[in-house]
Amino acid sequence: MSMKQQKLYHGACFYPELWNEAVLEEDIHMMKETGINVVRIGEFAWSKMEPEEGCFDISFFAHVIRKLAANEIETVMCTPTATPPIWLTHGHPERIHVNEKGETMGHGSRQHVCTNHPYFRERARLITEHIAKEIGGLPGLAGWQLDNELKCHVSECMCETCKTLWHKWLKERYQSIDRLNEAWGTGVWSVTYQTFEQIPQPGPTPFLHHSSLKTMYQLFSMEKITEFAHEQAAVIRKHSDAPITHNSSIMFGVNNEDLFSGLDFASFDTYASQENRAAFLFNCDLWRNMKKGRAFWIMETSPSYSASLESYALPHEDGYLRAEAVSSYALGSEAFCYWLWRQHRAGSEQPHGSILSAWGEQDVGYRNVLEVERARKEIEDAVLSTVPVQAETAVVYSDRAKAFLKTEPHRQLHYRSLITDFYDRFLSLGIHRDVILEGSTLAGYKLLFTPFIHYLPPEFIKKASAFTENGGIWIAGPLTGGRTEHHTIHTDCGLGPLETYAGVKTLFTFPLDERRTVGSAFGIKAPLSLWSAVFEADPAEAVGIIEQGPASGKAFMTEHKRGKGKIVMLGSMPAGEAGDMMLKKMISHYAEEAGVTLNMNVTPGTIVAPRMGPDGTLWVIVNMDGKGGEVVLPYNAADVITNNREARGRLKLGPYQYRTLLFPAARQ
């Protein structure tokens, strides 16, 4: 599963256990016609594999995998632990997930069991071991997927099992109750604890929970679900050498960095609409770096639209699915897979878009799937002979930051929306970018952004400081650095160690009202918004000044030279159209100052994914907005599909069109 790939996969999620043998034959025939070369199976089939407790039968799935392999279709095999069977839950409420309101979930959906309950863990281990023994050595096994979308429909469990584990986790973390009381500041509202066993789970309260309690419980939950996934992976590795993944998302209540640290390759599910294409591209840029140097998979996306019994999205425009697929392959994916192959005839997702209808006809997205297959074949050789170019600009993503903002959302701030919107500006400016993790190396980057990260660990500050001293430019903020690891406020200064390094003094932290507050930077005046930090710039230099509203005359943006580089503090979020202009100007200004060269002259709505190979640099150019676009070619190039030459200068693309252009190494 190295970044140097052997093939490009075009796949679908497949549920043969729901159909008879005749339909299985028909489906395989249609898959070959459509170009599907990999399927994912088994993730919801526990009752098929173990219909009664202890009665295991995996033979049906072994039969399916062999049949698929005989037709040159590979398989990703799943553990079915997202849907425990009725015999595991009936009459056993103690095994069931309890939500934050104290409501015990019922059987009949998925993720209804507490994944920390010891009986569930044992049954999950046993079913996983039986599957791995039966399937592990079969031909055509491309990989394994653990469970399905961990912590998608549920978040933190509040059952008695979790309460016991929570107290154990706190004891291991804080050692003594006095140390916890001090770290959390439990004297506020007289919530001081005498023993660890007295500390509640964050359930119903008349007002709000203590910030430390709520955030720490999220981190505890994230650690436990990672533990569960890694336990499953260890069982599989005893019987199979095939690589292991999980289909995750930044929406779910998991710490993806920790989760994938124990897995072999990264994959994600996405149902972003074409209007929200920035979210799709953000995921590609993040998951490319989730397992550095290994290709990622898109395990689920809709061939046309997503839907359930209670909701639906509109179908993609013709051409957009192909644009998604080509951009994802170019940005480092090895697989582009759909949910689902054949429409469910029953259940809660009956209306969901599919490749085939429940009655076996081509669904509305079918012709777009054929377009993806034609494109996959066209670009496969070019993609397989190159690797993605590391960006010079990095934006840090943190699931811990997501937990802090869930605890402290102010007026419904949402981490995923905030960071995706911030990231979208890099797209519109044509800057090639990586989305990286707190633990990622900063080697090779010139420009670093850390927005919306309430707590920056000391080890990250040390790493980012070394990056700055060696010539990098680090832009920190907004909403960065103002909380401790326990989700409390610093008592020595407003932003803790970040403030000292940035050469500023935080005068105030308060919400700036974009209707009354105006700031000026880079020759642009714009409203300022969100919870903000206002600075006295000394010895730093003020580059953004509040001109109207509370704290007029003070700085909301500063820069401070450190070694060969500098740190920039962005204390507030510019808002509105003018704010968008200011942020883009800020990004462009520091990109130029940092010497960023991977900055393509491209119209908004069109992207360039640069790749490097033995013959030079390959640009995969894709129009994503359906309006067509332009890109300026810096050198003469050759189209690797048509062999036509393209002269340097402006190149036009039609709606959803893609081009693969090679700049020969000798010409650059």
UniProtKB/TrEMBL annotation:
Keyword tags: Glycosidase, Hydrolase, Metal-binding, Zinc
Domain of life of the native organism: Bacteria
UniProt cross-references to InterPro entries, sorted A to Z: Beta_galactosidase_C, Beta_galactosidase_Trimer, Class_I_gatase-like, GH, Glyco_hydro_42, Glyco_hydro_42_N
The Beta-galactosidase C-terminal domain, residue ranges: 605-659
Reactions catalysed: Hydrolysis of terminal non-reducing beta-D-galactose residues in beta-D-galactosides
Domain Glycoside hydrolase family 42 N-terminal: 13-378
EC number annotated for this UniProt entry: 3.2.1.23
Annotated Beta-galactosidase trimerisation domain residues: 391-596
A GO term for molecular function: beta-galactosidase activity
PANTHER family, A to Z: BETA-GALACTOSIDASE GANA (PTHR36447), BETA-GALACTOSIDASE YESZ (PTHR36447:SF2)
Family indicated by similarity: Belongs to the glycosyl hydrolase 42 family.
Name this protein carries in UniProt: Beta-galactosidase
Gene name linked to the record: lacZ
